[in-house]
Amino acid sequence: MQINLRPVGTVISKTEDSSEIEIHERFSPGLKGIDKNNIRYIWVLFWMHRLSEDAREILEAHPMGNRAKEKRGVFALRSPMRPNPMGLTRVELVERRDNILVVSGLDALEGSPILDIKPAGSDRRSN
Amino acid sequence: MQINLRPVGTVISKTEDSSEIEIHERFSPGLKGIDKNNIRYIWVLFWMHRLSEDAREILEAHPMGNRAKEKRGVFALRSPMRPNPMGLTRVELVERRDNILVVSGLDALEGSPILDIKPAGSDRRSN
């Protein structure tokens, strides 16, 4: 079975304080109703595009890259190395300008394809 | 750009109380270190396999399917309809038996392909 994803946007800039996500024009109707007055936190699912295909074969790694620690399985770690290298981060919505979301706390690199955006609970309790 | 995912497991059973996830043999080294004594909560990322390809074109929907409510963009909703129909649920690890994880709280259907497993913070605060 093969599953194909379509990027819905891209991380277009990143500073220490915030990142800008541009949602592709084609998918911008999906943003209707998102503004920071009603949705303060969102989940951002992104593709770790800099990882090589080989890295997807790695199933065990040292926690935090610390060789003093015994290796663990990648499903027990937040390591970027995993069979499907998707990152998942709960970020704060700082501003929305049309199809651009300015967020803080995103650990994606510039150029990372965005796969999905979902609202997150404001009390950090809902998924 | 096309992104290909490989399912790493499947939801093999589901009751009212719990679900069983079977990680495919090939990926089972990725589970090393997962047991409920050190990882109580995990994020499960799964593919909503029952949705048609057409449903991926829907970009706006009524919240909770309630037609009395104005339509919103799918990125502002937890609706299963979205360009990349991936579900994301934080579940409690009830038991691990080799390459089977018994979890509670998973809203995936039986047969859903599993895309990733990540540890979640026990205090529900970390992503």
In words, what does this structure look like?
2 copies of one chain form a homodimer. By secondary structure, chain A is mostly beta strands. Helices cover 0% and strands 39% of the residues of chain A. Chain A has a 6-stranded antiparallel β-barrel. A two-stranded antiparallel ribbon of chain A has the order 5-6. At the A-B interface, strand 1, strand 4, strand 6, strand 7 and strand 9 of A face strand 1, strand 4, strand 6, strand 7 and strand 9 of B. Strand 1 of chain A pairs antiparallel with strand 1 of chain B, so a sheet runs across the interface.
Please describe the topology of this protein.
Two copies of one chain form a homodimer.
Chain A: E1 3-5, E2 9-14, E3 19-23, E4 41-47, E5 60-61, E6 72-73, E7 86-97, E8 100-104, E9 113-120
Task: For the structure shown, list the relevant keywords.
127 residues, 39% strand, homodimer, six-stranded antiparallel β-barrel, Elongation Factor Tu (Ef-tu), domain 3, two-stranded antiparallel sheet, 2 domains, mainly beta, disordered C terminus, 9 strands, globular
In short:
Two copies of one chain form a homodimer. By secondary structure, chain A is mostly beta strands.
CATH class of the largest domain in chain A: Mainly Beta
Please give the alpha-carbon distance between the first and last residues of chain A.
28 Å
The fraction of residues assigned to DSSP E strands of chain A is 35-45%
Order of helices and strands of chain A: EEEEEEEEE
Low-confidence stretches of chain A: 123-127
Oligomer: homodimer
Q: Strand order, biggest sheet of chain A?
A: 2-3-8-7-4-9
Estimate nothing, just give the exact number of structural domains of chain A. 2
